[in-house]
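fyi for ur records
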Amino acid sequence: MIFISHRGNLTGKNPQMENKPSYISDALNQGYHCEVDVWFVDNKFMLGHDEPKYGFPFVLFRSFYNKLWIHCKNTEAISALNDFPETHLLNYFWHQNDDVTLTSKGYIWAYPGKQPIKSSIAVLPEIHNDDTTHAIGICSDNIKKYK
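which gave:
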């Protein structure tokens, strides 16, 4: 099972800290994967959910590329990642309210309330008490509860 921290959260929502580089690093250093919200604005990558708030430290790309689930928040971000020199190493996706989307690595990213889906990533299953028995991963604000 892949355990994915949603925006760096481990034990519940924390909107003041979500997507903050130090918060994400903490989740990654504790052994979790991490879903991050990435924007591309003024020719640079930024982190933030509703808007770009924090510069994206490239040490996260280099050190944890295999544990990042990059949610592109604008079309410029997905285009920039497609052109990124190490794009084949990164796992990124775009979605809004789709039932499912495929990540660049071919994972099924399933919107809350759409489980069970075989071999998918169950996103925020706590919202709808989703059945995660067929999922290969869980992305949650309370990921410690699942591990």
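Strands lie at 2-6, 33-41, 44-47, 54-55, 68-72, 92-93, 100-102, 108-110, 120-123, 137-140. thats all i got for now
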